[in-house]
Amino acid sequence: MSEITEAQDEYDSYVPTIYKMLILRKPRHEVVDYLWWLETEHMGLTGDRQATEKFADRLMKIPDEVE
Fold first, then answer.
1. Beta carbons of 39 and 47 less than 8 angstroms apart
2. What pLDDT, in 10s, does the model give residues 3-41?
3. Distance in angstroms (rounded) separating the CA atoms of residues 12 and 9
4. Burial class, 35, CB count within 10 angstroms (exposed 0-12 / middle 13-18 / buried 19+)
5. What is the DSSP letter of 27?
6. HSE-up of residue 52 (Cα within 13 Å, Cβ side)
C-alpha cells in the first residue's frame, strides 16, 4: 500500500469515528461491526473476523489505559 500515494493517509480518516466510539464507550459489537465494515465493505478486503475482534478488544482498552 505504501506505493499507492492516494492510500498513504487513508487510515487517518477512520480515526475520528473510532476515537468517538471508544470515548463514548460504545458496545463491543458496534466497534467490531464498524471495523468489519471498514475492512470488508469500504476497503473491499477479504477480512479475518477473529483478527478484527481481537483488534477491537485491544482498542477498547485504550481509554482505560490513558485514564
1. yes
2. 666 666 888 889 999 999 999 999 999 999 999 999 999
3. 5
4. buried
5. -
6. 18
